[in-house]
Amino acid sequence: MKPYVICHMVCSVDGRILGQRWKSGGSAKVFEDTAATIDSQGWIVGRKTMAEFCSKKPRRKRRGHFNVPKTDYVAPHTQKTFAVGLDPSGKLHWETGNVDTEHAIMVVTEKVTTDYLDHLRKAGVSYIFGGTSALDLGKVLQKLHKLFGVTRITVQGGGSNNGSFLNEGLIDELSLVVMPFADGAAGTQSVFDIKASGKRKLSHRLKLISHEVYQSQHIWLKYAVLD
Ligand SMILES: NC(=O)c1ccc[n+]([C@@H]2O[C@H](COP(=O)([O-])OP(=O)(O)OC[C@H]3O[C@@H](n4cnc5c(N)ncnc54)[C@H](OP(=O)(O)O)[C@@H]3O)[C@@H](O)[C@H]2O)c1
Predict the structure, then answer these.
(1) Which residue's CA is the nearest one to ligand 1's atom 35?
(2) What's the average model confidence in pLDDT over 127-150?
(3) Ligand 1 centre and the CA of 83: distance in Å?
(4) pTM above 0.85, yes or no
(5) What is the average per-residue pLDDT within 61-70?
(6) Sign of CA dihedral 54, 56, 62, 63
(7) CATH 3.40.430.10 residue spans of the chain
(8) Could you give the CA distance from residue 21 to residue 144 in angstroms, rounded to a whole number?
(9) Could you give the percent of the chain with pLDDT greater than 70?
(10) Topology of the domain comprising 1-41+151-227
(11) Does ligand 1 have an atom closer than 6 angstroms to the CB of 34?
């Protein structure tokens, strides 16, 4: 079974997502407060966004083979909600298996070393294999359901992560808070960034579900993704 997927983001009026550029805009709080109202068992982000929650120190890599099979691993945990990160090459450095109140699950590929898998196990982080060298995100969602019981989850950036899910037709709903900033930085991340080189549709159709003025300044839009 594929969990129901809601993409939740805040953006400028021109669809850009680097909230730290919008001086005194409070985008992080707007993001967190609106996200907290969404019924979901966790969130999925790209490796660059997840880095904000990981150790900033470089990880000491060890040579040799570690006796860890390249199969999915569910670390002991009591949490019922999950922080999922796409880290196909195993770049992130973990010191704990939690992100705030969520249990951390990394999505890796068979490119990762047994040293890295051992590192995740020692930190208490669960991991699932999403492919040999590229990720099959449909398969990843099915594993999140099968191994962790996830039936509803949010996809929360950045643009590359969101774009991958959209491009594979895996997003059911979009929850978008438009903040009153015109950003204008050409080439910076936007709500959906899909590489021009791969297979992609010209656009995806949406159907408006609801619109609301949020805290008098922001527009909160919800859409069903039709295709
Ligand atoms: N405004 C908002 O609501 C909001 C929300 C979240 C994040 N953000 C911002 O977004 C920025 C980061 O966005 P971003 O687009 O540059 O990065 P991102 O989506 O956070 O991470 C991209 C990385 O994730 C991995 N990845 C994503 N999709 C993949 C796929 N289909 N297959 C394999 N790997 C995949 C790749 O890692 P590798 O490079 O290791 O292969 C890729 O380089 C940050 O500045 C963050 O603060 C804004």
Answers:
(1) 86
(2) 98
(3) 14
(4) yes
(5) 92
(6) positive
(7) 1-41+151-227
(8) 34
(9) 100
(10) Dihydrofolate Reductase, subunit A (3.40.430)
(11) no
